Amino acid sequence: MGNFIFIIFTIGCLLFQILTGYLGNKYLGMILPVILLVFIGYLIYIGAWTWRLGDILMPFIALSALTLIYQGGRALNPKNSYSNAKETHH
To answer: Which keywords are on file for this protein (predicted)?
Structure first.
């Protein structure tokens, strides 16, 4: 049951990030990255953070993934897509 909840939570986070990208709202799109940074800061504060390569790279990979998901949602919106922006500025 714990794995099912984790999968639903992960899908919900991804859909939320795609939705904020689609809407083009930068402030809503920063909610999950800020929560992630606060959580990592908390782990460092309580001493649960180890200095392994995976623990060091995880924040960079996670923040990059959230940014790319936001940009992917933004590209889904026809009025925010980069291809339309290039065509209208000829």
So the answer is: Membrane, Transmembrane, Transmembrane helix
pLDDT tens, 59-79? 899 899 998 999 888 888 887
Residues 51, 57, 60, 66, CA torsion sign: negative
* Nearest partner of 74 among 30, 21, 5, judged by Cα: 21
Is the residue at 89 inside a domain?
A: no
User: Residue 27, CB half-sphere, CA atoms under 13 Å: how many?
Assistant: 0
Containing domain of residue 23, as a range? 2-81
For tokens 């800020």, name the residue: 34
Total domains in the chain come to: 1
8 A C-beta contact, residue 32 and residue 13 = yes
SS3 state of residue 85: helix
